[in-house]
Amino acid sequence: MTEHRNTTEQQPDTTGLRQSLDEVDSGIVRLIAQRSGLIADIARVKETGTSAIQDADRERHVLDGVEAVATELGVSANLVRRIFRELISDSVAQQARHLNGDQGGRVRVAFQGAAHAYSDSAAQKYLAGRGLDGELTGYRTFREAAAALLAGDADLAVLPIENTTAGSINEVYALLREHELYIVGEETWKVDHCLAAAADVPLSALRRILSHPQGLEQCAQFLQTLPNAVPATYFDTAGAMRAVAAAGDPSLGAIGSAEAAAAHGLVILRHSIADSADNFTRFVVLSPAAATVDVRIPCKTSLILVTRHEEGALLRCLEVLSGSGHSMTKLESRPRPGRPWEYLFFLDFEGNAAGPRTAAALDELRSAALYIKVLGSYPAKALRHRPRPGDLPGPQGSQAPADTLEAVAAAQAPAARKSRQYRLVDRAARQADTVVRVGDLLVGGDGFAVMAGPCSVESSEQINATARFVRDHGAHVLRGGVFKPRTSPYAFQGLGWDGLDLLVTAGRETGLPVVTEVMAVDQVQRMAKAADILQVGARNMQNFDLLRELGKVDRPVLLKRGLSSTIEEWLAAAEYIVAQGNQQVILCERGIRTFESATRNTLDLSAVVVVRERSHLPVIVDPSHGTGLRQYVAPMAWAARAVGAHGLLIEVHPAPEKALSDADQSLSFDEFESMMRGLAAVPGPRRS
Ligand code: PEP
Ligand code: MN
After folding, report:
1. CB of residue 588 inside a 6 A radius of ligand 1
2. In sequence order, what are the beta bridge partners of 608?
3. Which of 60, 371, 375, 686 could form a disulfide with 302, with the two C-beta atoms 3.0–4.6 Å apart?
4. 281 contacts 160 by C-beta, under 8 angstroms
5. Taking a C-beta distance cutoff of 8 angstroms, is the pair 138, 237 a contact?
6. Please, where are the H alpha helices in 291-438?
């Protein structure tokens, strides 16, 4: 597409400047060599010591230091940080080589794909980092590459195991399970696709674009901008480049790496065309024998685990790891072959089996699990950079903190108090507040979420009018019961699934997410598809089957406190949900039974401060059920905000006196409006 510019015009002479630039560049390389010399000296000093070669504080110090210099000089701090991350990673590899006594040498490496495929580049990078020379051979499939290794035709195989866009590569997991193969290393590669063709043609001249299906998928948005081209799948990206070069047809394009394009003499028409800029693949380096790595080198250990056929078996295994201070970096479940509906897990964690702490944890894990295969301990490449306090987005920012079982297990926190009946929901397991995401609303942390609507959905007019009103007056979530837990079987029981449709429609039309009560195990899956938050009513707080079922769905759960439950029982009930893997639990204080009869229940606002101390889960307050009388609702709502609740659940009805349930405690529209006005005047609590 480049036009030939008129070169007869007077061009400024850049020769001198370019010469200066070349000098600066070779100066940079000389400085890198000087740095590398110093690293070698440090490695020799560390040889006799016991300290780890990777020191997170020191790394942070180095990065902060160079960033400060960059800022002072007006160059991009981000650029400098990226360059230094690579330099530091190289230094760590250099020291690791030294400690492990790696001599360098020549190895035969198998990979999948054609020459210049991403796997080829990753294998080269791995070898370079270890000072090894390689004889690399590409095989058609992953299985053929593994077979070459097992047959002794290769010393190592470098195979992709996961991609940050496309996820895990199941076939490689299957190979690890089926064969005596061990992981001795890992490598990461940033996948950066370009579009190349045989000639420098305008994009509109392209008719067909060849690539691996993943390459095409990862550039789908870009491909849509090409007016005349259709995608065509090819067995790998480098092969697609080769085919386009061989055809010499200028209407053909290929998507793959810039290296592959250059190797086949193609012209790059566009760089970095993937839809997501951060697209990384992690590769594992396989060998027929396990390797032992010096304990001072930061390692990861990978294993295959089959849990016992007992409730909470996986949780117990993970507790062995978190309890011994091991951060889990990956957990992948795969079907257990020949055993329908049974699973095995592939688990990665930071640790080295050669060290006593990890060795002891592996022993404990062996007795906790049904089967374990340690796939290897190997120098970690993809250690997670722990975020610095200033890097974390605010709780009301666009990103919630990680809210997964992994995050809890990985948290660097003191061990849970043994006397408690819960561990994962314990504040000791996670210092930071859990923030539960509901659409683009964040519940927990610094926010204050108001959930409002009728006790029961009664008709489309009733729910629509209420939805509009509460939305227009500051509510964030629409509530409405459709399955009602009524004391008398003769009382209104709710509209059931028809009511849910009405609620969901009202929510959609007003743009509000909806919360509704789920009463039975067999309602959970269906309700999880429609409602944004699943409420567990006070009467069901210890319906353990229901709680467990809710732990299996990927939906936030609002767990009300039982009528006569202690705070400890309530948190243990939350633990049931969380222990199944669903961390998205919002607690709701709704009043408890006491001797007092002036109110329907006694709203225990002290529970809010206790729960916030004992658990990281968000806690909201329901003053409607908590008092049972509408005149007390607003003052208790204001008080709830003042003591640090993360939100409110409020019953509102267009004509409270006619409500089919909980008429006495439902606010009229006017009362809701005045409650909300008063709320704005209550200063938000100071959050610790
Ligand atoms: C409700 O929210 O309508 C309800 C039935 O609440 P609880 O379970 O707290 O009584
Ligand atoms: Mn109610």
Report:
1. no
2. none
3. 375
4. yes
5. no
6. 313-323, 356-368, 405-410
* Of 618, 485, 509, 467, residue with least CA distance to 557: 618
Answer for the pair 586, 646: CB distance below 8 angstroms, yes or no: yes
Q: How many CA atoms lie within 13 A of 162 on its CB side?
A: 12
Q: Is 538 near ligand 1, meaning CB less than 6 Å away?
A: yes
- The pTM for the full model equals 0.49
Q: Which long-range contacts (CB under 8 A, 24 or more apart) does 264-267 make?
A: 264/116, 264/196, 266/196, 266/197, 266/198, 266/241, 267/196, 267/197, 267/198, 267/199, 267/200
Shortest-distance ligand to the CA of residue 539: 1
C-alpha of residue 113 to centroid of ligand 1, in Å:
59
Q: Which residues surround ligand 2, an ion (CB under 5 A)?
A: 455, 662
Nearest CA to ligand 1 atom 9: 538
560 close to ligand 1 (CB < 6 Angstrom): yes
Which residue stretches of the chain have pLDDT < 50? Answer: 1-8, 385-419, 686-688
CB atoms within 10 A of CB 465: 17
Tens of pLDDT, residues 379-399: 988 555 443 322 222 233 333
- Tell me the C-alpha to C-alpha distance, in Å, between residue 69 and each of 35, 64, 75, 80, 85: 17, 9, 9, 9, 15
Binding site membership of 625 for ligand 1 (Cβ less than 6 Å) = yes
- Tell me how far the alpha carbon of residue 424 lies from the centroid of ligand 1, in angstroms: 26
Q: Measured from the CA of 538, which atom of ligand 1 is nearest?
A: 8
- Cα 240 versus chain centre, distance: 33
